[in-house]
Design brief:
7 strands, 7-stranded mixed beta sheet, alpha/beta, 12 helices, Rossmann fold, binds S-adenosylmethionine, disordered C terminus
């Protein structure tokens, strides 16, 4: 048993690990050091760096594999009850989180709406998959468009439809459908633009949604997508986790570089929606690797014409907390930070969310080929075994 005044001594190996890099660095740069000493210290530093990176990579892969296993606990019944009973509409959530978070979300809606405006023809048609409270449509109200909002959560659609009934008259013509993004209830080549903002990460079989979107887009039509940007970063500080920042920047176009990719929402679903003796169930919250998603798009006949990232700094960070506490000034500062980060090479790959735009080409495979998406449910093949009854 430890006495209160017992001194906790760090393990000598840990102390050596902290002291070695600065000692080697000092040896390498010391004025008057000989060439052999400099080389030996440099090689030592490189060896240490390689060993720590190998450890980081091994740990990242282990955590990723564990999360992928947790995702196997997900099932459609729980998925359905979770969306319909536990998740407030995004508009309600924004009221709960407060003005700063609402401001950040408006930035995303502006980004998506601006890109949509650029690609939708006069009197064109838009499908918003997983439309939630239809906040994207709110930004397009002045356009003469046919807008269809599709969502899996019944109360999301009802909320969006109520808003339409009680709101001011708009030029946009809106319709809402309850359905599953992995099995779209529409005929081929119907829409000019498909929007899918912060939805693909929630799907059990995202590849099915991508093929469905390719099917319902007209040739030349465009998908506007936002989702989580792999890897685990930038949820941690670059000072404590430089490898994850480096991996995220360098892995934007080479996904094999990224060793840690989250698969599930970190907490299991509310036990109140589960039978008493059921094990915990985790639902998907997959972080997309831009290059991997781009390959999937290409196989489905969707050519990526834009890829960037946004949302700096991450909402969980201390700097975001500080900005949140500074009202209007905080909002203005974060707008400037966002603009600078989005336009700075390499840094612009580090945002929390990836923003991709892809055009429907005439090519593409008829169905997702094996291995195009590495999720645990994709191993089952492409038969219609995950259909959600609406
Ligand atoms: C984070 S919210 C985003 C909502 C909206 N796109 C926005 O940006 O405000 C995710 C939405 O996806 C919907 N969703 C999840 N899985 C779905 C599925 N398989 N098919 C259709 N909608 C789905 C949820 O009901 C929820 O409204």
């Amino acid at each position: 048993m430890l006495h209160h005044n017992a001194v906790m001594r760090p393990h000598p190996l840990k102390v050596a690990r902290w002291l070695l890099p600065p000692a080697l660095l000092a040896a390498a740069v010391r004025p008057g050091a000989g060439a052999r000493q400099r080389t030996a210290a440099g090689v030592g530093l490189l060896g240490l760096w390689a060993a720590s990176y190998a450890r980081y990579r091994e740990r990242g892969k282990k955590v990723t594999a564990h999360e992928r296993e947790l995702l196997r606990t997900a099932n459609l019944e729980t998925f359905s009850r979770h969306y319909n009973e536990c998740v407030p509409t995004l508009e309600e959530e924004l009221d709960i989180w407060g003005e700063y978070h609402a401001h950040r979300h408006q930035m995303r809606y502006d980004l998506v709406a601006e890109m949509t405006r650029r690609h939708v023809p006069h009197n064109g048609s838009i499908l918003d998959v997983g439309c939630g409270a239809a906040l994207v449509a709110d930004k397009l109200g002045d356009l003469p468009l046919d807008y269809v909002g599709l969502d899996y959560g019944g109360h999301h659609i009802e909320f969006a439809a109520d808003k339409l009934r009680s709101g001011p008259p708009l030029t946009i013509r809106r319709r809402f459908v309850r359905g599953d993004g992995e099995h779209l209830p529409f005929r081929d080549q119907l829409f000019d633009v498909v929007v899918m903002s912060e939805v693909i990460e929630h799907l059990l079989r995202p590849e099915l949604a991508v093929w469905e979107i390719a099917r319902v887009l007209k040739p030349g039509g465009v998908l506007v997508l936002t989702t989580n940007n792999a890897s685990e970063m930038p949820l941690r500080s670059p000072l404590t986790d430089p490898f994850s920042w480096l991996e995220k920047a360098l892995g934007f176009h080479r996904d094999s570089i990224i060793s840690h990719r989250p698969w599930v929402w970190p907490w299991p679903v509310d036990r109140r929606i589960l039978p008493e003796d059921a094990p915990n169930i985790y639902l998907p919250h997959t972080w997309h690797k831009q290059a991997e998603t781009r390959r999937m798009f290409a196989a489905a006949g969707l050519e990526t014409i834009h890829a960037s990232s946004f949302e700096f700094p991450p909402p969980q960070s201390k700097s975001a907390q500080w900005l949140n506490e500074h009202g209007e000034a905080g909002k203005r500062i974060v707008d400037v930070v966002e603009a600078i980060c989005q336009h700075t090479p390499l840094v612009n790959r580090l945002g929390c969310h990836v923003f991709m735009v892809a055009r429907r080409t005439t090519g593409g495979l008829a169905a997702p080929p094996p291995g195009i998406w590495p999720g645990p449910f994709s191993e089952q093949g492409s038969e219609d075994d995950t259909a959600i009854a609406s």
